[in-house]
Request: fold
Amino acid sequence: MTITTIVSFIFVLGILVFIHELGHFLAAKWAGIRVERFSLGFPPRMFGKKIGDTDYCISWIPLGGYVKMAGMIDESFDEKIEGKPDEFMSKPIWKRAIVIGAGPFMNILLAFALFVGLIYKDGIPEASPEAVVGSVMEKSPAEGIGLQPGDRILSVADQPITSWEALTKVIHGLPDSTIAIVWERAGTRMDKLVKPMLDPARKIGLIGIGPQTVMREVGLGQAMAASATYSILLTREVGKTIGRLISGQGSVREDLAGPIRIMKFAGEFARQGFMKLLEFMALISLQLGLLNILPIPVLDGGHLVFLGLEAIMRRPVSLKVRVLVHQIGMALLLALMAFILINDVRSL
Reply:
């Protein structure tokens, strides 16, 4: 494992954890809740400095972080609730919900902001109007005749081709027909016979190629709109993955990546450039925010469930029950993390 990989992982994880916990911290301060500890990493405490009421520290288990608020049952399992006005449980439910939701919200906001910046800098990808191959599907007719990305299509079925629109119009109209295709690669003309496969849904012919993409410059407003659209699409994909796992159609081994695989991905993106690393950070930040609002004990979503139950019952869930549920949740979460970690090691 290279230094680039390790440094990239620490950079990405450090920022994501810090942003998440900063959300909780700032919201707690806004709500008038006393913050006893702001920790990067889980206990035991490694080192830090106490400023005012808050101990700012680095802890030994580098798989996340937490903000310890007075009078709140969390990762520390501290049952000391005295009913003081600056304690978590002394605040209205809606304020506590904002404090809990602020962490995931900050991760989602960071992802959105990074996507906006990247799109504003690089533009939005669009299909090139030229009849130039951008991609070739595996095991497609196009791959069978040797078409490659960068090839310029000159004619199809003896019809001259001057644009991607003209190319698709001809191919779409000739399913299951053997046709001649002529293309140019690095100044050399090539020709072959190809039989477009029938798309049964649309009743059109396809040979398995995609157009080249070009980057179109956009303004800030367009970048924000594109970022929102992209974030929604990614959110749907995360939802589909979670749905597959819950239904048993997915695989924890395949669909969940642990710290080692994330570290590997971080190194691969970093070697492509700093902007690519920021893109990876945005992807992970969005997923982290979404996963944290799942109704699982210890996660922020689990805390929100308790607040929902409190609102329905008009009284808090008993302290013993909350502590027990969080202890069980932490044990299960650690077991899952251990399984994923072992799977990461085996996949190397």
In short: The CA atoms of residues 56 and 146 lie 60 Å apart.
